[in-house]
Amino acid sequence: MASSGNVHDLFTYFDVDNLNSQEIQTHSFEHLRALYQLNGPTGETIFVGQILVEMDFLSLGNYKKLVAKVAKQCDTLVYIPHRSEKQTTVDEIATIENVTILRSDCSIEVYLLEKRIYPTYIYSCISSALFTLSKIFLESKITSILPSDLAEEKVEHFNEIVVALRKVKNIEVNKG
User: Fold this and answer.
1) For residue 176, what is the enclosing H or E element?
2) Strand order in 171-175's β-sheet?
3) Same domain for 13 and 70?
């Protein structure tokens, strides 16, 4: 973030309007896309894991039902756990039919690019990764699923997150 007097210029991947004389540069990951030169979706369906159970935003049983509902729609659902998800949560998700667990030792964005995976479908709930993945994988069909039993009042800035997700052209937000 650059500063010129009392005005701060911003660099963000969110589409936001300029305020007064503030300059906002939107990061679209174009250099990363050019570096890896992926030619389009490679057929995978992924679910980006979150620590919703660990944060007590959603019960393990309901989280498992949500992932299972997505898994029923495809041949194989690749579940990529959040780095802070407990092993017990991941083990329970692994029992779902059609689910394969894929652990990464780096950010999901870099991992997918390094492995030359351009997902056809990307699912999650309110993961911040949906924002960055939507900028990198422009042709992927991305869905944010808002569980009906999510403890929204416990999620800091929940409404703002949902509004931001709805503003992204290639992210569909659904109640789940």
Assistant:
1) none
2) 99-101, 77-80, 45-48, 121-124, 141-146, 171-175
3) no
d(C-alpha 54, C-alpha 39), whole Å:
37
CB 61 within 8 A of CB 93: no
pLDDT under 50 in the chain at which residues? 1-3
Contact in structure between 152 and 126 (CB atoms under 8 Å): no
- Tell me the per-residue pLDDT of 148-163, one tens digit each, with 9 for 90 and over: 999 999 999 999 999 9
Q: 152 to each of 47, 59, 64, 159, how far by Cα in Å?
A: 20, 13, 18, 8
Question: What is the per-residue pLDDT for 27?
Answer: 57
Does the model's pTM come out above 0.90? no
127's tokens? 């993961």
- 155 and 102 assigned to the same domain: yes
**One domain, residues 22 and 58:** no
- Containing domain of residue 8, as a range? 2-27
Looking at residue 76, what DSSP letter applies? -
Q: How far is CA 96 from CA 12, 55, 78, 100, in A?
A: 37, 22, 11, 9
